[in-house]
């Protein structure tokens, strides 16, 4: 039974892990190829902006900020929850701040609000716990929300649909309906985009409105830019009542009059040059006019209107306030002789002296006092505070450090030590005072740049190690590493530049230019660098080194004549030397009867004007007998070897008999 139970537990854990892996793969924003994702994203943006651009005749310049928020919603890793420092995925419940439009996991923001409310309304730090509705702030912009505004459900951006379904053809966490949120500042119109993250764009409606000074005729303008200036002088009367506003048509109230004029003070005794915008001013002279009593003068400084009655006239009270006297203004009010009975500073006892002028003395009565912490009592004068030397052992609100304050009342102050814990970004430490719970997310942002530094995206601190650098559309500006003066155009990148594919164009020894691709940085397999210790050692992967290869042999075709001048053939430049065409030489030998039967060979011309078909010293020598036809009647062969021209006369001696056969003659054959 125990083994079966353990098997079931492992089975459930594996199924949960497999399910989470499938969800992560489906919800990942980088699930498609880059090109398909960009095309798909462009279609979704066009669909979202269609109604808005139809009102602006295709002008989308006011949508750049909203477009940036939507691009971040599509880009993998761009939308990050600042509370848990994790990516926000398509299938996760989220909440968006209405102040900074930052997106958080719904669970994270609920925990954040709960912790914030607990910290500010803790009974250790506030005596009014439960009596006041304390707000909680947004983690990023510190925009305050009431306790009742703590999110409890997952809504789309426009707030119409609860738990919006995951649709790959909509912006993540969008319901796909028209936004219809009120524009800020409110103009009476509603947003025309489909449900979207970030702020609504400016109102695209057309309205007819006049300028600030109301002098120009009303003209049709975009509602978001309906306030305009006609650039004419304002002309409205200023507050001084003497001059008009000379500024160009402007919004709001006119500026104070900048002119200077002579103005009298309030009492009219002095005159000074002052700004026309502030004509009323006071001098530093005491009024000094005689009051109606005839005994005193007015002690007010430069005032308007009558001075009023003498402040010492009428009924006046004694110092303790129990008795009233009607006396001339020249006499002082006497004391009444009764006890003072004013409450002293202690708030418990009353003054026991007789009616007197000036402040009452401090309370000197002996009372039994309890110290602030309530552990000790002592008899001492009422006006002296009593603090014992006992140190408070309670833990402060951080739940880490003791109070250690002498004679603490139990309402321990917040911990005054710095937290100093490493934040989730792993780059900074918490600068807040020592506190309970998790630290606030790091407020810093980090610039993630491309290699050249011209394309920059801002990410929360700590995400720079996992997010991909932005794609830069600038051309790579690195100098070429080969012999070329410029490299092939390609976009900014990290790592080594791609191999140069330009033609080499080095001048070869033959004078031609090398036509093959650049080979200054070729990868060559390195062999023989490591010998295995035995058959048990696994063969290592081949190592490649980068080296410059020599230019290959020149392959430019060059017309070359064979040795015997029988033909002309195109040969590669590197092997363009005289060759044998394998035919018979065919040159006419000196005998003028036969041709050279040697294989095509070089022939030296003895005379520049000699016939090109005539045999040379290298040709074979004719060793045949003369085969020319003999004259009629000569039965002998030519005695000479094969020779040019006619054969010589035959000198062979013949034995000839006469007709009767009796006489014999010896004569030459000719």
Automatic annotation (TrEMBL):
One of its GO terms (molecular function) is RNA polymerase II transcription regulatory region sequence-specific DNA binding. One of its GO terms (cellular component) is nucleus. It comes from the Eukaryota. InterPro entries: NFX1_fam, Znf_NFX1. Pfam families: zf-NF-X1. Keywords: Metal-binding, Repeat, Zinc, Zinc-finger. Residues 187-205, 240-259, 293-312, 346-365, 373-394, 398-417, 425-444, 482-502, 591-624, 634-652 form the NF-X1-type domain. Belongs to the NFX1 family. PANTHER family: NF-X1-TYPE ZINC FINGER PROTEIN NFXL1, NUCLEAR TRANSCRIPTION FACTOR, X-BOX BINDING 1 NFX1. This is NFXL1 protein. It comes from Chloropsis cyanopogon. The lineage of its organism: Eukaryota, Metazoa, Chordata, Craniata, Vertebrata.
